[in-house]
Structure formats: structure tokens, C-alpha cells
Amino acid sequence: MGFVIGYRRPAVPDAALVWQVAVDESQRGRGLAGKLLDALFDRLVDEGVRYLDTTITPDNEASIRLFESFAKRWNATLERSALFAAADFPDPHEPEDLFRIGPLVPAQRPSGR
């Protein structure tokens, strides 16, 4: 149905980078991507993660909406900054912006636990 891939860098233990979020086409439009992110970070905040980092191309409106919605549900700030220019990639590629969401506070998690 769907998955989230990411990692925590040892040098930045209070942040988790979300590399990819995917939902099967037949399941899209049901809020599954947001539920997957919420479930993942519901656990990660208990381990000390306070920030979600991800990169998104400026034309990926669905991903932008997904992470804006995540920030709103968690009552967290979303900061967006340029990270990679198109010229930084060896092949034709859109630029990528860094999205940082946080702080993610256990008391403000959507699950209420």
C-alpha cells in the first residue's frame, strides 16, 4: 500500500531525514501518506527526534502539501530553503529545496498519546 524511507544521521541525532514517501496509486487520496508519517514520527519523538528534514523539487505540489499538512497536524514550524540548484546535479534535474519541520514535541503529536 505504501512506505516511508528515511534515516537518522549520527551527527544530527535530533533529526530524521525522510528520503521517500510512496503510496500505491489505488490507495492515493485517502490520507495514507500522512498517516504513515504520523505513525513513524509518533515513535521517533519518543527517541528524541525533534525535526523532520526532507528535500522536494519546487514543482512537486503533492509532496509540498503532504509536508505542510504534517507540520500543521504537529503544530510545528516548516522552514523552506534552497538546497541544491539544478546545476548541482550531473544530469538534468530540478532544483531541490530543504524542508525542515519542527520542533516536534511529544505533547503535540496528533495521536494525543
Automatic annotation (TrEMBL):
GO terms for molecular function: acyltransferase activity, transferring groups other than amino-acyl groups. Pfam families: Acetyltransf_1. Residues 1-90 form the N-acetyltransferase domain. The keyword Transferase applies. Keywords: Transferase. This is Diaminobutyrate acetyltransferase. It comes from Saccharomonospora amisosensis.
